[in-house]
Structures
1.
Amino acid sequence: MFNALLLQKTDGQFSASITSLDESSLPPGDVQVRVDYSTLNFKDGLAIANKGPVVRAWPMVAGIDGAGTVLSSSHPDWKEGDHFIHNGWSLGETRWGLMAERASLEGRQLVKLPEAFTPRQAMAIGTAGYTAMLCVMALEERGLQPGQGEVLVTGATGGVGSTAIALLSRLGYTVVAATGKASEEAYLKALGAASVIDRASLGAAGKPLQKERWAGAVDTLGSHTLANVCAQMQYGGVVAACGLAQGADLPTTVMPFILRGVTLAGIDSVMAPLPKRQQAWARLARDLDAAKLESMVTEVSLAQAPEWAQALMDGRVRGRVVVKI
């Protein structure tokens, strides 16, 4: 038997509770693991707080991320005692996830834990931080270099935003953080933001072309915010878009793209191929300041995960929430 955060919907009634499950109920998989830590990402918050149609099979064990130790394996790349990281791949949506003491996984979807990180640190990064690294890599691949101008990060106090600021600042970029939490300015500057702006300046409908400011941007919000960011990009600027916290719509025009040569790069972390994941985690091990990472972290127990999921949905969470299993 093992404990897990089980999401259920019976006769239209939703529940999220710590439940004891039999290991025989685990789905098929070629790697059996003990999970040491998981984490709360935005998608986890939606699922656990029942705020969005994330779960597509019931009942569901929550948790898209996990890190821990291999117990047994029939996959050639994994053996007993190896330390793994799992991000995405529809866990917590269509397949039982990792807010559980045990899990059954696919070896082809796992990344080996870099020596630079403990399992706790890997989950302090989680999908949010790994997505931030994918955004940084996308900006670099499209030619952005330090010294070309300011780089904007929206949703700055969230997991993606916090990690993106820490990464970009360490790489030499001048980072501007956009947030609705004026009280968090000191936190954002400690992560490496050169300045902080009010997200309200970006959140409403704006002109299709505006004064050029940003050389690059990481956007987690979508909707009017992303439209305004595109309208404010410098000629040849690059925007990495990875979220929809404000909305899934994009009320913009083609003008930033055909008159200023702006690039809008979409970032998907859920189904990204394994080589891209391995590259991202290697870069995180090299480029992420461990002290800054720790400053983002709140650690909670598995039993506390539901209340923290609600807090995440209410906008009351800063940085990363690590769930100790």
2.
Amino acid sequence: MAREFPSPNPKLVLVIGVSAVSTASILVRFSSSNPLIIAGYRMALASILMFSLAISSFHQLNGLSKRDILALFGSGLSLAIHFGSWTASLGYTSVAASTVIVDSSPIFVIILSYLLLGEEVNSREILGIFISLLGAFIIAFGHLSTGSIFGDLLALIGSIFLATYLIAGRDLRAKLDLAPYTTFVYGIAGILLLLSASLCGIPLSGYTIKEWGIFLALALVPSGLGHNSYNYALKYLKASTVSVSILGEPVGASILAAILLSEVPSLTTILGGALVIIGIYITVSSRSS
């Protein structure tokens, strides 16, 4: 007997979520603002958006310990570095390479969990990590002569700090609902990014309507619609299904980049990207099982 799903269908919502997140890199490319400004206002506006959904749950903050509060700020700092470095990477490397590398965060979650928390790593996970790292090496090797390797490195930093964000927030998510958690973490990240921009002498105002439209679109579509779609789907679908489906982002982003930016990935990016995605699939499906 086929399983009945509620309305809206979580599988359809998941497809919408992947499509929404895939627009992030394209929206960043359409902007002429500094990466710190783009990422900062994306996070700040997303925090304001989530605030309206979190009002009834703010009482949960009263139960947090000092360690939890430090973890909350650590999570926000990690998210700020993630978005700041990844957004900057799109100015130096291709959309395909940037999104493939930054979406390799599940690999670093397992590596950091092993190094910092002593969690066991099985042979299948080691195989997946090796394949993904081989793919990343192929992408970087193909960019040695083009200067794009700096962008690849920024995307790699973004991936590592996305992993630290996920690890830092793992215990907090057991104590806080999604809305209050993201309200504060997005808010901390936004403040840190905008403060960094100000310290670097980058103006915080004076942007055109087009730029503000891009900042708002980033907050609403990939951050709001995209990530909340994932969390809705998690309520009804296996975590492994949702985790693996997120690998559709580099594919969707690359297709949009080819159509809207006339940016066709190089052969080494396609080959390396395929290996990274295969490696992540092996690793995620192993950890989920």
